[in-house]
Each structure stands twice: as C-alpha cells, then as structure tokens.
Amino acid sequence: MVSQHGILLAVNIISDHFGPIVSKVCGCLLRHGALSLLEIGRRLELSPAQVKNSLLILIQHNCVQAYTSPRGGGDKTVTLYLAIFDNVLHRLRFSKFLSVVRVDIPESEVLLEGLLQNGRLTFEQLVERTIFKVPEGSPLPTREEIRMNFNKLVYAHYVERCPKSEPFFDPLAVEQPTSTRKRAPKIVEAVLSLEQKVVSTAALSDAERFSQIPYFMEGSSSANDGHHAVAGNKRKHEALEVDEEDSIIAESEFLWRINFERFIFCLKKKFCAERKKAKMRLGTLAIWEAFFEANVTNNDNKTVTSPIDGILERVGQKEGGTSMTLDQIISVLNDLECTSTTNNPEEFTFDY
C-alpha cells in the first residue's frame, strides 16, 4: 500500500511533467486502485475525453497499465487502468539514467534520451528523432549505425520491448487453491499486490523483452557484413536470414521503453563503487573500478558478477593497468571480497 506522502510526491511529479488534469487521474488511480474510464470520470467529474487523453499520456510514459478483467458477473469484461507507482517515481532519475549511458554506451545517448522523454517509441520513430537531432552541418548517421547502437542498448538490457498493452487478468484465476494456500507462508500473500500481479500478467519473457531489431538481408552472402556483434566481438557471427516483412514490423510496430530495473541496478553499482574510492590506493582503485565496469548484464540486483577477461580489459585501459599481472589482479579482487563463483572460476562476484 502506497503511503499518502508517496502519493503526494507521485502526483507532484506528474503535475510538473504533464499538468494538473493528468496528475488528478494518476492520483485517483494511486488512491483507489484499478478503475475503469467511466469510474475515473465520475470520481473526478471530468469528461470522458479528458480522462481518455490523460490515460493515453500516462500509458505512453509507462505510468499506467491497462488490462481487461471480469466485472459484474457472467462473461462480461471491462478495461481497467492501474497506476504503477514505481514507474512514476523513476521520472525523477532521468538525468542520472543518462549519466550511466554516457559512460557505458555514449553513442546511444540520443536514443535513450528519446525514450526517457517520450515514454515508449518504435524503432522507426527513434530513427527519425535521432536524425532530426543531428546538428546542421554534421554528417547524418546511417540507419544501420542507429540500429547497431540501439541493439547495444537492448543487449545491455537498458532498453526493452513494452509489455502486453491490454492483457487479460482474472483475480480469481490467480488465487491459489485452499490446500496450497494453507501450506504457503503468509508473507507471500502480503507481498503480491494487485499491481504486481497485473504487471506480471502483462510481462513478456526475457527472450521477447530483449530481442534485438533484426537485420534484413537480401542476399545470404552479405548477411555477415550487416550483422553486428555488440558484446565485444564474443558472439558468433552467423548468417542471419530475416524475412523482410518481419523486419519492417519490428521497426515500425514494436514499442520500446527503458528498463528501469537495469538502471536502478547500475545506480546501485555506481554508488557502491564510489563509496570506497577515498580509502583505496591507486592500483587497487583501478581494479575495483574495472570490476564494476566489466559487469554487462545481471539478472540478480543484489550482486555484481564480472568475467575475468572483461576485468583485465578494463584494467588495461587505466593508468598503470598494463603493468599489472593476472595474479596481482586476482589477489586484489579477493581482498576486496570479490570471490570467484562456484559454477565458473573465471567469474568474480561481489555481494551488496
């Protein structure tokens, strides 16, 4: 349950970005939970057009999730709208999100900025916006260059495909059977709020969320030339045959948004890396920074895991790093409590 202070903060954020009417609709959903368009209008005494336009803005900026659910008995379903509290608060962190990408993937900053400002866009819209942002007299990037930079963001999980726009959610169907519910810890029922259940219903699989924009190749001989690897050339270069229609759909119809979870993880990582800096020696500091920088993707938001090859590459880019031996680097990692994992001794993990 969101506190009144939290609701007030969220409403003020939306008011600053989108004005008083949109903030009223957001506040109504935060206070009363899932409501239909008509119910929102009655509570706020707004016209259907005002409510609809406000909801479209909130959905566009990932602050509201629409879903259909049984209502009133029988087979009747209705579209309901639910405010996603955490997504509203994330709007405060726009500048910090950009600072993360400036370090990791600087050439993709314009793409990310477009998604931060507009909520969700197709790749086609991002291409148009990127070209429009190029200063007069500067060379225009090619579509392939923009696609490659965008795929880097997707590969690093900074950007994801949007969840299902209006999934079906039946509150009765997701309830556990009585026998199972008796054996389950009570805390599980308390943690799974309506918001979490709806978000889970709308969520895509990881393979769908982070599926990159495909490259359409007219001839198989040119396939390898157009297929870019975005993971330090470690991924295999294989001929990729993509149907032209599928490629066009992916570019013009799939909606994309920033992945808040990934950015929050990166900000935690940045804070953790900065906290020890003042107390560390130069050589140790270089290895500490390299360890955090080498972490590319991680599904666990409580630990940082980096491969030794990536750490060595990052250390070599720092002052005095080229003279450090592998044994020295591993010794420092162990002293910093970055331990090698059981499954893969070539990876080191730090627990927050």
Automatic annotation (TrEMBL):
GO terms for biological process: DNA-templated transcription. Residues 149-328 form the RNA polymerase III Rpc82 C -terminal domain. It is found in: Nucleus. Pfam families: HTH_9, RNA_pol_Rpc82. Residues 9-67 form the RNA polymerase III subunit RPC82-related helix-turn-helix domain. It comes from the Eukaryota. Keywords: DNA-directed RNA polymerase, Nucleus, Transcription. GO terms for cellular component: RNA polymerase III complex. The keyword Transcription applies. GO terms for molecular function: single-stranded DNA binding. Belongs to the eukaryotic RPC3/POLR3C RNA polymerase subunit family. Component of the RNA polymerase III (Pol III) complex consisting of 17 subunits. DNA-dependent RNA polymerase catalyzes the transcription of DNA into RNA using the four ribonucleoside triphosphates as substrates. Specific core component of RNA polymerase III which synthesizes small RNAs, such as 5S rRNA and tRNAs. This is DNA-directed RNA polymerase III subunit RPC3. It comes from Sorghum bicolor. The lineage of its organism: Eukaryota, Viridiplantae, Streptophyta, Embryophyta, Tracheophyta.
